[in-house]
Specification:
It is built from two helices and seven strands, in the order ββββααβββ. By secondary structure, the protein is α+β, with helices and mostly antiparallel strands. The termini are far apart.
Length: 156
Amino acid sequence: FNPKINLSEDENNYYIHVDLPGMTKDQIKMEINEDHILTISGERKSVYDNSQNKSENDEMETEDINENNETKENEDTKKHQETTESEIKNQKNEDNKNNERKYNIIESSYGKFSRSFNIPNDANLENIQAKMENGVLEVIINKIEPPKNQNRTIQI
């Protein structure tokens, strides 16, 4: 997953806009180090997990085979087991309704990401603001007056 980035500035601020559709601020981590490098990272989880569906299908096939081999004396145990398995499957279905879908095309990107930016020396690293709205992370970094280098005469 490689989120799209927009960088801009005006006379007072630097702006970073990161497109993170479907993500919340709790899924994003921001860090800045002493070298003026701002890193934004996180993970966009997939709403569809094919491996989970496959394992559930494998379990169902195993249950079908076992059903044919069971005798009458095990039917009470089997009914209790089926009820428990049914409750577990119902819970899974409630938690992961999208897993029952058959996807023909998936164009959305998922996975971990990390983007780093060199922040200019005239940025105020003590006053960085960030907000998440409608799937877009906006980072605002205030500019400060850089220290002026004054030439001075040194006597020899």
